């Protein structure tokens, strides 16, 4: 395993027990305009605190799409919810989201 002492922290919830999987999906806002995910971002190790456990992950891939077209394949993998259910929950937490807000599904691999 790569050096985890410099792991960049990520904040996310263990919805659908995804941290127990070898790989998982997290849906969130896409990077702001002008900020891109670079090749070196795929080489970094990230750390998620889950209670007293540290989960080390690596970014595998990502996809961007407008909020209104968030694919169910990502919402089910990320939360166990169909896209419609997920959208209602998301809007309760992030009411500033518009139909064309650019979202991203980030795919991570758990480092063991």
Helices and strands, with pairings:
Blueprint lengths: L7 E3 L12 E7 L16 E5 L2 E14 L5 H8 L3 H11 L8 E9 L2
Parallel strand pairs: 1-3
Antiparallel strand pairs: 2-5, 3-4, 4-5
Report on this model:
- The chain is an alpha+beta fold and 112 residues long.
- The chain is 17% helix and 34% strand.
- The protein has two helices and five strands; from the N terminus they run E-E-E-E-H-H-E.
- Strands 1-3-4-5-2 form a five-stranded mixed β-sheet.
- Strand 3 (46-50) and strand 4 (53-66) form a beta hairpin.
- The mean pLDDT is 93.
Largest sheet: 5 strands, mixed
Helix-strand sequence? EEEEHHE
Please state how the strands of the largest beta sheet are arranged side by side.
1-3-4-5-2
Mean pLDDT, as a whole number?
93
The gist of it:
The protein is of the alpha+beta class.
Keywords summarizing the entry:
single chain, 112 residues, alpha+beta, five-stranded mixed sheet
């Amino acid at each position: 395993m790569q050096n985890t002492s410099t792991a960049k922290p990520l904040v996310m919830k263990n919805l659908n027990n995804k941290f127990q999987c070898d790989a998982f999906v997290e849906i969130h806002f896409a990077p702001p305009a002008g900020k891109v995910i670079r090749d070196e971002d795929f080489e970094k190790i990230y750390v998620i605190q889950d209670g007293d456990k540290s989960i080390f992950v690596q970014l595998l891939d990502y996809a961007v799409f407008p909020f209104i077209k968030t694919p169910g394949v990502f919402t089910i993998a990320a939360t166990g919810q169909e896209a419609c259910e997920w959208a209602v929950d998301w809007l309760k937490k992030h009411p500033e989201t518009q139909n064309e807000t650019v979202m991203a599904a980030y795919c991570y691999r758990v480092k063991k």
